[in-house]
UniProtKB/TrEMBL annotation, chain B:
<dbReference type="GO" id="GO:0003954">
    <property type="term" value="F:NADH dehydrogenase activity"/>
</dbReference>
<dbReference type="GO" id="GO:0051537">
    <property type="term" value="F:2 iron, 2 sulfur cluster binding"/>
</dbReference>
<protein>
    <submittedName>
        <fullName>NADH dehydrogenase subunit E</fullName>
    </submittedName>
</protein>
<keyword id="KW-0411">Iron-sulfur</keyword>
<keyword id="KW-0408">Iron</keyword>
<dbReference type="InterPro" id="IPR036249">
    <property type="entry name" value="Thioredoxin-like_sf"/>
</dbReference>
<keyword id="KW-0001">2Fe-2S</keyword>
<dbReference type="InterPro" id="IPR042128">
    <property type="entry name" value="NuoE_dom"/>
</dbReference>
<dbReference type="Pfam" id="PF01257">
    <property type="entry name" value="2Fe-2S_thioredx"/>
</dbReference>
TrEMBL record, chain C:
<dbReference type="GO" id="GO:0008137">
    <property type="term" value="F:NADH dehydrogenase (ubiquinone) activity"/>
</dbReference>
<feature type="domain" description="NADH-ubiquinone oxidoreductase 51kDa subunit iron-sulphur binding">
    <location>
        <begin position="320"/>
        <end position="365"/>
    </location>
</feature>
<keyword id="KW-1278">Translocase</keyword>
<keyword id="KW-0285">Flavoprotein</keyword>
<dbReference type="Pfam" id="PF01512">
    <property type="entry name" value="Complex1_51K"/>
</dbReference>
<dbReference type="InterPro" id="IPR001949">
    <property type="entry name" value="NADH-UbQ_OxRdtase_51kDa_CS"/>
</dbReference>
<keyword id="KW-0004">4Fe-4S</keyword>
<dbReference type="InterPro" id="IPR011537">
    <property type="entry name" value="NADH-UbQ_OxRdtase_suF"/>
</dbReference>
<keyword id="KW-0479">Metal-binding</keyword>
Amino acid sequence: MTTQESAVAVELITVVIDGFEVSVPKGTLVIRAAEKLGIQIPRFCDHPLLDPVGACRQCLVDIEINGRAFPKPQASCTIPVEPNMIVKTQLTSPVADKAQKGVMELLLGNHPLDCPVCDKGGECPLQNQAMSNGNPTARLGGVKRIFEKPINISSQVLLDRERCVLCARCTRFSEQIASDPFITLNERGALQQVGIYENDPFKSYFSGNTIQICPVGALTGASYRFRARPFDLVSTPSACEHCASGCDMRTDVRRGKTLRRLAGDDPAVNEEWNCDKGRWAFKYITSQNRLTQPLVRNAEGELVPASWPEALAAAAAGLVGKRAGVIVGGRPTVEDAYGYAKFARIALNTNDIDFRTRVTSDEEANFLASTVVGSAVHYRDIDVADHVLLVAFEPEEESPIVFLRLNKNFKKRALAVTSVATKGSIAMDKLKAKFIKVAPGNEAQALAAISLTAKSVILVGERASESAGLLSAARTLAEKTGAKIAWIPRRAGERGALEAGAFSQLLPGGRPVSDSAARVDIAAAWGVSTVPSLPGRSVRAMIDAVHSNDLDALVVGGVDLADMPQSAQAKEAFKKAFVVSLEIAHSSVTELADVVLPVAAVTEKYGSYINWEGRPRAFAAAVADSLNRSDVRILSVLADAMGQSIMLGTVTAAAREFAQLGKWEGARASHVAVQPGTPVSVSGDQAIITSWRRLLDEGSLQIGEDNLAGTRRPTLAVISPSRAQKIGVATGDHLRISNAQGSITLPALVEEIHDDAVWLPRNSIGSNPLQTLEAVHGELVTVVKA
Amino acid sequence: MSSVDPTLNQEVMNSIVARYPRKRSAIMPLLHYVQSVAGYVTNSGIENIAEMLEIATAEVSAVATFYTQYKFNPIGEYHVGVCTNTLCAVMGGDAIFSALKEHLGIENDGVTADGKVSLEHIECNAACDYAPVVMANWEFYDNQTVESAKSLVDGARAGNPPAPTRGPNRLVTYKEASAVLAGLNDGLAGEGVQAGSATLLGLNLARKMEGK
Amino acid sequence: MATLTPILSAHWDEKDSFTLEGYKRHGGYKAAEKALAMDPDAVIQMIKDSGLRGRGGAGFPTGMKWGFIPQGDNKDHYLVVNADESEPGTCKDTPLLMANPHVLIEGCIIACHAIRAKQAFIYIRGEVTHVVRRVNQAITDAYAAGLLGKGVDVVLHIGAGAYICGEETALLDSLEGFRGQPRLRPPFPAIAGLYAKPTVVNNVESIASVPAIIANGAEWYQSMGTEKSKGATLYSLSGHVNNPGQFEAPLGITLREILEIAGGVRTGHKLKFWTPGGSSTPLFTDAHLDIPLDYEGVSAAGSMLGTKALQIFDETTCVVRAVLRWTEFYKHESCGKCTPCREGTWWLVQILRDLEAGVGTEADLEKLLDLCDNIMGRSFCALGDGATSPITSSIKYFRDEYIAHLTQGGCPFDPVQSTLFVGASK
């Protein structure tokens, strides 16, 4: 609870329901006031996060106010409590009871008797409430409504129309929450049905939520359909590993195999929603060639299976006494990141550790150490903000639940959103965001002119590191106006890695490496005499150091070469250095490594993430009895093998130790402002490239889920109308984007973008500018009609 | 992506949109307009409307399928509706409807092979004092009999349908009528009677009573 | 002796009654001139004093409805005229608009002035091409004459086939470009109607009645009618009568009186059942001939005045067939939003089809009545209620006829006998 919440005085209203008094905040609906008393009024269309609609009529109750009774039963999901209100539910009113049974009979009348083959069977609100609030026998014996079944409304979602009770939760979600009104109610009367427009499938990043809130089995997921019965599943609360939004989730496993994941209910974070990537992208864990045992490169240079003692000994031999660094990908749990942080300082005696295997800058490193670590800006701050400024951040693609929260506030209270960007976007259209259009690289200058207040929030994306001076400008703007500033990385592990000290400039808990008191603090806690004081290197600097023979070895955890800028040099460095790779599956790094140590995937281990807010997101192992172990445990035994114990034998031990360290209360690293770069000028066919990753793309955690891939947004290169005219290109024609490194040819989309720029997706089919062009933002490329 | 249907006059469509304080309100007249051009609601029409109103195509099709006057397949040049709501049905509408089905060799919602006439049983058309009522392209044919209805459709198939009872001097085509329903003025408002005899019955009787 | 009082219909027999010239010949637009010189609140008061009540069926006092519009709220206000006349049996607004669209436009000008609206919308059903032409031309002519466009704009909106759009909030959703399904109330249209702005939704006849009230005064108007149902109105007589048509008379006239004036039930036949105000109003029989046809009188007798659509059926008509057909109508026109109406009408039709075919038992009648009990008052809007009215009222008065279908294994009536052209078509 934040202070704002507790500060608001809530007016309570007392009503009597079935003879019991209950006091609830003004505006509470009768159906929810009843819930507070434990009185369950049956319902279908009602959903606490959707606007009341009163359509299904299942929740009818008798109501009187000030002694005056309504002449007929009222839908308790649409009526707010009032003083002197007396409510009689089905428990005390025969009229309400008959009304409810009557509605239930009508809902069941046209419902197929296919519960035995329906995915919802066993967890079905219609089934359950028919038992609790329906007639025991049926008397409607006529011709039932029949539809063709099922129909695919997207590659992910199937619709069995005859099961539908037309509660419109799905269509209301799509319109009210996601602003993707691609499914609608069509036709009317008894033939009314949910549907899409025939040429446009339900391609929403949030479509899976409609399946979850469907109170019957009308909407089912292609990936889960006919896979399990609910009573076969073991459910485990979990946290999403895909992005920094921090969704609460539930993972359902049957006999050791994850079959589905659902959005969890956390009002402070994701409410009851998640995105389709979080819901469906989990097959990467099982569909790839998982590592099952350690590998060691033998004398012939081949990677061969080895026992754990052999592998640990080989790894220790390669690391002891060497100048070694640690590269952690953006996805470690906090506990694993803490393990890497402690391992680097104690076992390798170095601050050469970084989690940023992407395009970064020293400015960013300083920004993280001076501004982000230890900070706390919350979703709740968006709820009360007067204005949200998006900087190098495309929320729907890069942190979808942040988008949903922005959208909620836009829909409910017309929250003002401004985006400093090069290209417009679907999300900006949905949010009716003010679009400050700048050429790539010129963002910092644009920030200076924006006026905010102390009630404003600045959301800075990780791509801000790609524009010199932008992070500094964002910080300056926040300082000048008092606005809150938050940094939203894409990956789930980055913020936690920062807090846990898997970072060259910070020890765990945000303790600056450069601060001797902080070092003493940590050394004391760890029971060592000192921790290294020499400033550490970034990923980029470690790669360079390998090439310049200043670094001998690397411990690499969860890194994909394809994410790394100048990956050819990184690849060469990995070949050259002694590399210990901790991975779940064979990868571009494991094939270069000298020792490969298999680790647990997220569903197989305990741990926690820290989301963009700085909020811990703990989760339990969903797959019991996995042989795989979390990175921290393996690092601990490796440290033992090296004779430099870090004493982190379990995730729990790591979590406890990290918690006990607490946050650094001393001074943060000081902020060093960086000036904006000089604007790049373009001429002729030149354009300045910009790009971002789409939510659904070629990302390695989406491997194996073809249904999800079917709802990707199309891969297109975007140029402005004036550029299109200049080079004679129309939407649908092809563009070639090239530089000295290579070229990419894509269909063109002519729309709102800065005239000097070209946009393309960063990691989609046929479009990987990082690898092909070694350029993602701000660099000159040539754009011609292909 | 542009979804402009080249057969649709964008200026006319924009003028329809301009009638309203908010664009989306124009969806129904725009659908009537698409029918006036294509004879029914085409997919390209739906897509054009969605783009023009800046809404999703699904939102357009959701609206289009709600209203029974929007057709999704080509229908006759003369669309004949026989009222079979209770009063008209009892007074002869049922007999007329079944006679027309047999006469034309088509079922409800069917179209004759020549594309001239389509048939539909319709609900109350607010002309109960002229029952049984038949509508052709939503023009009134009052006090119908099986014979008069047959000669209506025969005339329609021959290209010379009789004039409506209360309507312009000639029966316009379905597309032409749809343009009227899109709010476009065809200049025919002045044609035809101001009122039928049943409409005037009370007035005439009142005059008589006054005269007494 | 009951009298007829042609007011709205006074000049319909003139060939050019629908033109601006024809309308102005009898003082058309003078009332608007008078009203525009009045304080808006005085106009509202005058309509209140006149006792005018909504002629669309519900009978809500028109002046009071206008008075609900918040004033000085710096919001746009709208007047929306409901010309979506679709209730079975109802056929008054359509001939009115064909014969004299200008009286509606004049009413709009006055009403907009009263409620401080700058814009009115006329939502007319789409199945009446020629009426659309007449109204559209009248609007064009009124603009050309400077009657519109100087403070009040009128937009014609044409429906596309949906009975439910006669329900005022469904109409508003339809006018906003959505599926025409009813909205939750509150908020009521007076607070958040069209585009969420304060809105008055009135029936055609209600607004068309306004100019005469302004011209002749509230006292004149309330001198007609009964104690709580003031003024005159259009009664639409249809069905098995010798002379169907529109009869404008003071509220409170009885069906017996109208039939006397009009020439009675079809010669050689006798009245069996009738609707006082469209198919959604419970049926009456010959026992109700002397019920005063005003809001209170009809209500006291267990039905509703509704739209004063007097559909007359003689003894040749099978009530089960009649009710089945109406029920099929409600099924066809159910918007689909709420369960009782959408699903209920689906089953009502099936049970009634069986009953008409003589299939079933008397227990099915009880099932039918129980289903009606589960629909009536349980639906989102009045459409579901309306669907049950013909069923429950017909079983109340004609249970034996239902049972006769079962005992005879089919319908005992010859449908030819009830047609208009019985004998002629042979």
